[in-house]
């Protein structure tokens, strides 16, 4: 294995790991709020679950980019391409947007989701508004995902 | 479209109150307006609230012991005749369940009492004396009690000092049990010195029989009670078959409660009800009332200035389902344009683009079709299910265009998103421009309707020309035209955006600030790139699941694992993609589309109606 491929693997690892951390924190934060509301109003479970699942997407985006890097570099098929150090670095940097933004936006989206969950607890009809507010945070994770993907497709090997 | 409202004034005789209200509740087209604080009355009784709680509590009680109807069972149905009749059977079941639940409670209390008594008697079980015989005699005091185990030295010291006789029994929770005998002599003094080291006196003389006898008879009684409990449980399970009668009773009491809570103005002989009615349902309300009574006065008035009627929208069957998306944001106000038809079509298309997979679309279609058939959802839930059901078809359609089948790419009709992300990006941006333009188009229509034709031209058309011009700049053949369109649009905005300002400097800064809105239009349009991101996410995760499944599928065990990964992975991906598509599609409507024209802020139409939770009423004609 060349140094280049190792750097690319580091890129894949970091975007799955950081975005995963963000989502895990976000879902945990929303989950705590949802459990509290659920104790009082168990019939809201469905609505709360939707809100709790929202911060989970960053982890999926990170995973997605990680797999795309693995596919492009041949890691997943067991025949890694010999990358130069420059190419490896390119993959690493392409993974950074979703890794970093996924991490932070996951955390902040989780907090927004928790607040929306509490709002839903007080007024179950407001859950759609809460979902929209929570989804606004995700916009930036989606943009970062898009940048990561477009960068990935721009790398020539 | 939004249906205009009429304000109905209904005057009826007091004796007809209940049947008229029932008739109105059945058609569900009359939203009662509460009269002013000082001249209202209602029949609200605490009683009906309690009744509703009781039947609900008995249903819950039944659920504790019996199998609940499964989620796949169809909802029970009754017809209106049955619904409006007295439900003796349900009442009977409720009474019986109530008495059974009381018996269960009594038995529970009795068991805990007996167990407690046994625990107290346990240390004394080797005392072979009938408890009723333990009392002081002419010359001797007898005392039963406990002392803490760790003070036996002090205890024997006091025993010796006062020359008492004693017998120790077992050690219980309260300490060492002991029977003390002493010639009558200064009981207070020896007892208090015993108490000072921790002795506790007990009195068991109220019980009869030896401790052993009492314990065993208590045990027998507990056994009998448990048997009795089993019989009660059997009776409860036997009543489970009448669950629907009880549920029906619950619905009836709730409907009754809703009628009783209605507020009206009354005179000695008549009552007067005000309510909102859709202008196209006026005859329906009139015939419903005239069917049950001849003596009534019903007038339909136009809403006065300052009165805000509730909003009812009616669209064709397909578009009506998408009203739920608008309603979740905010209902349109009376007198504005109902955005549901336009938003609905866009929602439908964009959802399909975000999912974009033939396999997932097919699964969605089957799932939601079955859900509709089996559960027969009602109201907003039904609309939501229909939205997803209809969207499954656009999902399939775009799946064919993108050649995506459960994440596998196979002969795309247009292009595969993974092979041509830039092409897809451009497509999503074009969709975004069209979506935003259709919103601006509605605003133009509104402004023209209100006579502000110039506003429509300055604020909407100029931007549309500018944006199209900017788009043309990317096409070599249209570059020059695009250039002039962009400049023309920008000049109009620059000159007119500040037209409301009072002085020249204000007008110039207003124009410049107006042109600065270009950033918000650009960010709105770029926001549609999420369609690409979500579509790629759905496709690539599906692809990864296939890849993972293929990687392990070498041997037979591997093959089983592969199928497991395949099913679980795609289920997960489908669920998450549906959630994301639902949320982000809604967001595109709410933020990017609605802010171009939509105000919202309408009130919900909440007619007097049957809001059944467990049971459907079969012969009801309802269309919103």
Describe the overall structure.
- The complex is a heterodimer of chains A (157) and B (624).
- Chain A is mostly helical and 157 residues long.
- Chain A has a single domain (3-154), classed as lithium bound rotor ring of v- atpase (Four Helix Bundle (Hemerythrin (Met), subunit A)).
- Chain A contains five helices and no strands.
- Chain A has helices at residues 3-40, 45-53, 57-72, 85-122, 127-154.
- The longest helix of chain A is centred in the N-terminal third of the chain and has 38 residues, at 3-40.
- Chain B is of the alpha+beta class.
- Chain B is 59% helix and 12% strand.
- Chain B is built from 21 helices and 16 strands.
- Chain B has helices at residues 17-27, 46-65, 80-84, 88-121, 152-162, 187-196, 211-239, 243-260, 282-292, 317-321, 323-329, 340-355, 358-375, 379-402, 421-449, 453-472, 479-496, 504-516, 518-526, 529-552, 556-593, and strands at 2-3, 5-13, 31-33, 41-42, 77-78, 140-147, 165-172, 175-183, 200-202, 263-266, 270-278, 296-301, 312-313, 404-405, 408-409, 616-617.
- In chain B, strands 2, 3, 4, 10, 11 and 12 form a six-stranded antiparallel beta sheet that branches. Chain B has a four-stranded antiparallel beta sheet with strand order 7-8-6-9.
- In chain B, helix 12 (340-355) runs parallel beside helix 20 and helix 20 (529-552) runs antiparallel to helix 21.
- The relative contact order of chain B is 0.13.
- The A-B interface holds A 50, 53-54, 56-57, 60-61, 63-64, 67-68, 71, 76, 128-129, 131-132, 135-136, 138-139, 142-143, 145-146, 149-150, 153 and B 328-329, 421-422, 425, 526-527, 529-530, 532-534, 536-537, 540-541, 544, 547, 576, 579-580, 583-584, 586-587, 590-591.
């Amino acid at each position: 294995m060349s140094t280049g491929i190792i750097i690319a693997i580091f890129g894949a690892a970091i975007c799955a790991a950081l975005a995963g951390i963000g989502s895990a924190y976000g879902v945990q934060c929303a989950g705590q709020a949802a459990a509290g509301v659920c104790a009082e109003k168990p019939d809201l479970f469905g609505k709360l679950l939707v809100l709790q699942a929202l911060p989970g997407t960053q982890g999926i985006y990170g995973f997605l980019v990680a797999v795309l890097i693995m596919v492009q570099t041949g890691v997943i098929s067991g025949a890694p391409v010999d990358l130069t150090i420059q190419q490896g670095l390119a993959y690493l940097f392409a993974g950074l947007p979703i890794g970093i933004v996924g991490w932070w936006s996951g955390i902040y989206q989780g907090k927004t989701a928790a607040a929306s969950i509490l709002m839903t607890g007080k007024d179950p009809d407001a859950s759609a508004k809460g979902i929209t507010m929570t989804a606004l945070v995700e916009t930036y994770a989606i943009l970062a995902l898009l940048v990561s993907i477009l960068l990935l497709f721009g790398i020539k090997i | 479209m939004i249906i205009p409202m009429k304000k109905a004034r209904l005057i009826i005789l007091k004796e007809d109150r209940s049947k008229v209200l029932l008739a109105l509740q059945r058609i569900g087209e009359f939203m009662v307006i509460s009269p002013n604080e000082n001249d209202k009355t209602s029949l609200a009784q605490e009683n009906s609230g309690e009744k509703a709680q009781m039947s609900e509590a008995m249903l819950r009680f039944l659920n504790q012991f019996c199998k609940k109807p499964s989620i796949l069972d169809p909802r029970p149905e009754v017809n209106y005749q049955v619904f409006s009749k007295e439900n003796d059977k349900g009442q009977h079941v409720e009474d019986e369940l109530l008495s059974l639940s009381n018996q269960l409670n009594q038995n529970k209390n009795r068991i805990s009492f007996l167990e407690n008594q046994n625990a107290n008697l346990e240390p004394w079980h080797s005392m072979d004396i009938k408890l009723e015989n333990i009392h002081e005699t002419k010359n001797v005091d007898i005392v039963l009690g406990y002392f803490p185990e760790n003070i036996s030295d002090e205890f024997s010291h006091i025993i010796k000092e006062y020359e008492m006789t004693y017998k120790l029994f077992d050690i219980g929770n309260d300490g060492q049990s002991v029977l003390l005998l002493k010639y009558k002599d200064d009981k207070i003094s020896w007892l208090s010195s015993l108490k000072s080291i921790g002795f506790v006196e007990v009195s068991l003389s109220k019980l009869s029989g030896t401790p052993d006898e009492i314990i065993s008879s208590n045990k027998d009684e507990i056994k009998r009670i448990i048997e009795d409990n089993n019989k009660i449980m059997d009776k409860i399970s036997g009543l489970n078959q009448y669950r629907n009668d009880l549920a029906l009773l619950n619905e009836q009491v709730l409907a009754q409660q809703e009628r009783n809570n209605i507020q009206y103005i009354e005179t000695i002989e008549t009552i007067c009800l005000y309510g909102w009615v859709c202008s196209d349902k006026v005859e329906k309300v009139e015939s419903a009332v005239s069917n049950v009574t001849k003596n009534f006065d019903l007038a339909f008035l136009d809403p006065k200035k300052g009165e805000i009627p509730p909003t009812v929208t009616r669209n064709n069957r397909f578009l009506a389902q998408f009203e739920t998306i608008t309603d979740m944001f905010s209902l349109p106000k009376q007198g504005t344009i109902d955005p549901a038809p336009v938003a609905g079509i866009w929602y439908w298309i964009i959802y399909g683009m975000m999912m974009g997979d033939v396999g997932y679309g097919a699964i969605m279609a089957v799932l939601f079709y079955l859900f509709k058939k089996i559960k027969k959802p009602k109201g907003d839930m039904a609309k939501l299910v229909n939205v997803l059901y209809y969207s499954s078809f656009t999902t399939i359609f775009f799946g064919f265009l993108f050649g995506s089948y459960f994440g596998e790419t196979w002969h795309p009709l247009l292009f595969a998103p993974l092979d041509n992300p830039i092409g897809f990006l451009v497509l999503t941006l074009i969709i975004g421009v069209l979506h935003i333009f259709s919103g601006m188009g509605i605003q133009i229509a509104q402004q023209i309707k209100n006579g502000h034709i110039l506003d429509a031209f300055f604020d909407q058309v100029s931007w549309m020309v500018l944006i199209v011009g900017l788009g043309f700049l990317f096409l070599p053949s249209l570059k020059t035209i695009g250039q002039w369109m962009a400049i023309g649009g920008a000049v109009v905005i620059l000159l007119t955006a500040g037209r409301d300002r009072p002085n020249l400097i204000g007008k110039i800064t207003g124009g410049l600030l107006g042109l600065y809105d270009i950033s918000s239009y650009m960010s709105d349009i770029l926001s549609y790139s999420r369609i690409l991101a979500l579509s790629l996410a759905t496709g690539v995760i599906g692809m990864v699941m296939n890849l993972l499944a293929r990687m392990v599928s070498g041997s037979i065990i591997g093959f089983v694992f592969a199928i497991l990964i395949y099913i679980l992975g795609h289920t997960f991906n489908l669920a998450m993609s549906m959630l994301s598509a639902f949320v982000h599609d809604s967001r595109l409507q709410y933020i990017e589309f609605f802010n171009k024209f939509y105000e919202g802020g309408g009130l919900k139409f909440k007619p007097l109606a049957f809001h059944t939770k467990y049971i459907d009423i079969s012969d009801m004609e309802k269309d919103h």
